[in-house]
Structures are given as structure tokens and as C-alpha cells.
Amino acid sequence: MALAFPEPIYTDGNLSIAAAVGLPIYSCPIRAVNTAYVVSQDFVQNISSFSTLPLGTGFDRDSSFKLVSEGPRQDIGGGLVKWTRTYARLPASHDEFESYSYSFIGFQGVWTVGNLTGTSIQATGRPRQSHVVTSRVRHDYFYSTEPGTIPVIKSQRYLNGAGPGPTEPLDTDYLYDAVLVPSTPASSPSRTEYVGMINAGDEIVAEDSRLSRWLGNFYLRQTRYVVAK
Fold first, then answer.
1. How do the residues of the chain divide into helix, strand and coil, expressed in percent and rounded to 5?
2. pTM for the whole thing?
3. Which of 118 and 129 is assigned the larger pLDDT?
């Protein structure tokens, strides 16, 4: 009994060239958006002529979709194999929200006695403390054969005031403004600048962005943001 297949998109008559069978199936793999970014298509071909395609090969029906995988081959008799090719296109950026424990920066306090001014960790300051907050995780997608060139977004750093000479500022657990006696440059950002960020509801990068393979040569960069407090 002869095998019957839907009419292929293309064939040279003896299936030495892979022939698409059936309709392409589109899917929406990203929970945050109802957009079709993946399509799968079944193919048949003589097993003796079969060979895989390079990742990134365009889909015949829509070249914006690039090959990301080829499924296992099934023997369907008559020297033929059937398998599924999966293609994807570049998703738009989107956000996810989740709880996250972030160590918010401390403030160095100031004390004044008569005409004397000094610094204190406790007086009008606060220690560095961790709080569980709702973070925004930005999802950005890239198509690249050289993922090492995809930029990484660095986390917010808190640095002490630069001193004289070539010494580089060091990380600090407390922010402070510049004082004249004794002469101390402000931290970076300064306490006043950071309070301004709090009042404006500005976001800060909570950790260095993370890069991972999404599908084929498509890569996902996730960057976590929290609101300053």
C-alpha cells in the first residue's frame, strides 16, 4: 500500500530534496506575550539523501524565521524518513516581575557638637539592609553567532570618594555627601543623589545581566531592576 502525503511545497519527484508536508504550526512560547515567535514544519526525504541544515537557515515561507533545531527522524517505510524542523524569529523585549532580596545601600550619618562636625554610622544614617521587593526583569533577545559580543549591563555600584593620587575608589556600604572638615569627597553616588533617586522612584540595576541561549543562535539577556529605597 502506497503512503499518501499532503502535497509538498517543493520536491524533485523522488524526494532526494526534503519536501514539506502538512501545514506549518505556529506557537507562542513566551508567557508574557501572545505572539507567534516559533513555527514547526514536518518534512520527508529519502534517508539516503538526508542531511541537516545549518542553524540560521531561513524558513521558505517566511525568511524572518531562522532554523533553530531539527527533530529526530522517523522511519516511515519505503526508504523515507520524516522529521520536524523548528524555526524562530527575534522576539520583542518584554518584562517579567518577581520577588527578589536586594541589599539596599546604607547612609553614613553626621553629628555636630558646637562648631565641630564629624561622621557617624548611626546618628542620622542607616545600615545596609536587605529587603524582599518586587523586581522587574527585562528580557532582551539577540540573534548572534558571536554571543560574546552581546553587551552585559553592569549592576549599580557604590563607591567611596576618590582620594588624592592614583588610588581608585573602593566599594562602600555607606553613601555620604562631601564634607569640608576634615576634607572628604562625596561617595558615588552621593547620599543626596541617591535620596533624589528614591524620591523620583528611579530604578537601579540589581545585578549584572545574565546571558543564555534561547533557541539556536538566538540569545536571551535578562537584566534585573529594583526601585531605589
1. 5, 45, 45
2. 0.83
3. 129
Of 180, 185, 190, 181, the closest CA to residue 162 belongs to: 185
Residue 178 lies in a domain: yes
* Total residues found in the chain within this entry: 229
Indicate if 52 and 153 belong to the same structural domain.
Answer: no
Closest CA to 24 of 6, 11, 4: 6
Tell me the per-residue pLDDT of 38-97, one tens digit each, with 9 for 90 and over: 999 999 999 999 999 999 999 999 999 999 999 999 999 999 999 999 999 999 999 999
DSSP state of 217: T
Range of the domain at 25: 19-88
